[in-house]
Amino acid sequence: MKAAVFQGPGSIAWQDVPDPGVEDPGDAIVRVDVVTVCGTDLHILKGDVPEVTPGRVLGHEAVGTVVETGRDVRTVRPGDRVLVSCITACGRCRFCREGRCGQCRGGGGWILGHTVDGTQAEYVRVPFADLSTHPLPSAVDGFDAVLLADIFPTSYEVGVLNGLVHPADTVVVVGAGPIGLAAIVTARLLSPGRIIAVDPDPARLEAARKLGADATVAADEGPEQLVADLTDGLGADVAMEAVGLPETFETCTRMVRPGGRVANIGVHGRPATLHLEDLWIKDVTITTGLVDTTSTPMLLHMLAVGRLPAKELVTHRFELGQMEEAYDVFGRASDTGALKVALGGPQHTAVQVPDPPAVA
Q1: Same domain, 233 and 101
Q2: What is the CATH number of the domain that holds 85?
Q3: Which domain holds residue 92?
Q4: N or C: more exposed end of the chain, with fewer CB within 10 A?
Q5: Residues 259, 156: one domain?
Q6: Which residue has the higher pLDDT, 269 or 150?
Q7: Model confidence over 115-124: pLDDT tens digits?
């Protein structure tokens, strides 16, 4: 089969690799029908995730069809259409039993495209398939569902839930890429009073407005002053960091009010300064986290009944064999306007998806 193989910092190749096979009784082999590229994959390419070594098949999000299962798999069988979660859960260790599957110590956690071969391939081996795949209703489109493998549960759990968003809160989302946009969408579920999006890219700020941000501001146009003006100088109740850069994290800590919450979602490859000389007196809570995907069934139900605008985040579609082109388009988002790229289906060329409709 062919797969996207990490060659080392700055390089991937779509090349031949051995077909995966069942290695453990809980494994499923899934034919990949739809897959996407994540911002974390770009961090890997930059060398920010040293655990990923050359030769690794990348990717941790997919929709596919089960073609083979190990003898212990009970909840899916060959022919089933499934969502492959970015988090693999053994279901037995302390952390899985506590619902912290991202911290699994039984052989799971974030392993796909990280410590084992991932989903950016024609086929993928999924360990602990009973707890790491989700059967999909036939009415759910694969290009929509693939966004629930990672970005929607990540934004909801690590951003909205960790940030303890409440009705009437002022919420600032720093970074209007896919994760930040999904954070805006899922924060709206908790009825905040105001959502403010911060990003340097005008196109992404426009997408943020269409998906529910009440105010937007360019990163170089005084976001801290805007937040102060809109909150009578108090600051945001919740500031979500959705980029993974020292400067964006530090911006969040300056915009949060006394007693507020900073929810870090971004993947960081460099140290950030924690200004405790300013924060120690403000009763600020800072949270970090890797998604656990415990919210995935709920989000899938919302998608199935039309309550989650996932489709609007996919701006470019490719055939699976166009993986290198998809990486290039996604990696140059400021030039290409890419929000989320998806690969699969009969497309032979990239398709620019129309702008999303306004959210009422």
Answers
A1: no
A2: 3.90.180.10
A3: 2-150+293-352
A4: C
A5: yes
A6: 150
A7: 999 999 999 9
SS (H, E, C) the chain: CEEEEEEECCEEEEEECCCCCCCCCCCEEEEEEEEECCHHHHHHHHCCCCCCCCCCECCCCEEEEEEEECCCCCCCCCCCEEEECCCECCCCCHHHHCCCHHHCCCCCECCECCCECCCCECEEEECCHHHHEEECCCCCCHHHHHHHCCHHHHHHHHHHHCCCCCCCCEEEEECCCHHHHHHHHHHHHHCCCEEEEEECCHHHHHHHHHCCCCEEEECCCCHHHHHHHHCCCCCEEEEEECCCCHHHHHHHHHHEEEEEEEEECCCCCCCCCCCHHHHCCCCCEEECCCCCCCCHHHHHHHHHCCCCCCHHHEEEEECHHHHHHHHHHHHCHHHHCCCEEEEECCCCCCEECCCCCCCC
Q: Is residue 110 part of a domain?
A: yes
pLDDT at 89 over 80: yes
Section 104-110 average pLDDT: 98
Q: Could you tell me what percent of the chain has a pLDDT over 70?
A: 96
pLDDT at 139: 87
29 and 70 in a single domain? The answer is: yes
